[in-house]
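Components:
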Amino acid sequence: MAQTDDQVLVEQVCQGNLNAFRVLVERYQRYAYQIAYRILRSHHDAEDASQEAFVRIYQSIQNFRGEAKFSTYLYRTVVNLSLNALRRRGRENRSENPGRDGEQEDRKEFAENPNIELIDVGDHLHRAIGRLSQKQQAVLVLRYYEGLSTREVSEILRCSEGTVKQQLHRAMMKLQKFLHYMRD
Amino acid sequence: MFRKKHVSDRLYDFLSGTLQEGERAAIENHLARCQKCSAERRRVEKVIQALDAHQHELPALPEGYWDGYWKAVEARIKTSRPRSGGLEKLLEILRGGETEGLLSPKFAYGLLGFALGTVVTLGILSPYLNKKPQPEVTQPTTGQVETQPAATESPTLSSVTQEISQPLLRFFQKAKAFLIAVKNTDESKETTTDLISEQETSKKLAAECRNLKRLPLDPREQQLLSELDIVLVQLSKVKNERDSLKLDLVKEGIERNNLLMRIRVHELAHEVRLLQATQAESNKSDSF
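Structure:
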């Protein structure tokens, strides 16, 4: 049997059908969690952000006029909530560790450990991703990890396709600098 | 014909094979002739390889996790408050909560900055706003009534205007225009000449900023000048077009510290001061 169209389900939810919302949640729960996890890199935070996104959407479903796809609306909410959580975490970290410079610490670690094979490059790469700007992280997650098109990403982040391409390129260049000093 | 427009922003699409044949061929053609883009292509390729090789695996979730997911969402729906209204939403955003929908974080911080700026401006201007310049009537010495400007008030307003507001206003206007230009800089299209002239401008502005910091200013104005000094010094150290990381950090600093909005608020305050001074002057001349 063909899947019921998202828009039809949204209309049913607007009429108070909670089961229709359940179908939508079960259809998108993995994607929502995955996006949140890629940004937050913590199971607990990703679970919280993705579930909260569904709750917010349910509460404001009347405002969803179907101008965008349901998935776009959902991913936008997940990204915004995840970035908010990231910002809160950053503020807490800064207040707990004032003056801590992660990049300098990484450089020091590489300098002190000449055997690059012993270092977990993947872990450092993901720390470098964490140091990208929030917009760059969001673009990288949606475009590279989730494989969404430039147009889809621009709709989710409400910016132009040119901005998406530019942010992705800048993210790549920053990561390349990181890889470059790793190999110096 | 060889096109000079660089293709940096399209390299990821090119390498991930998502371009139409015509665009792909045009980029290949450009890459064959442009060393800069060709070098960038190798860099992007390297990053993609690294990302591919170190995919951050999702955590292994316990069996049945997804079956219970809906129940957790449903429970949250039933226990959560209905969506808050406009004021509550704004307060929530200002507390660092949700930013989805109507108000973006930039807008919320901008609004907060504007509100604080207005308070600051009113605080700075309150002595002048409450005092109307009144001519002082002195005893006639030569048989006629003489009106003289208030001995304590006019010189204060005049010195504030001439020695503080005017140079600060000029500096804020230049700094604002320069920071907007820096924020809009696209380093992929930037030339070394542009960067050298930017370096020169930032050095001059930083020197001007340090001179202004010696003036007896409001602590918030001193703070803004100190932050601008740091940004300008950082900009004067951006060496070449490859130093994009530093430039990006400076741009983020401008945005994060809301410098443009704060400059505008102080600019407004000084504009109002100058206007008040002009009005006071014209009132004085009217009274003669």
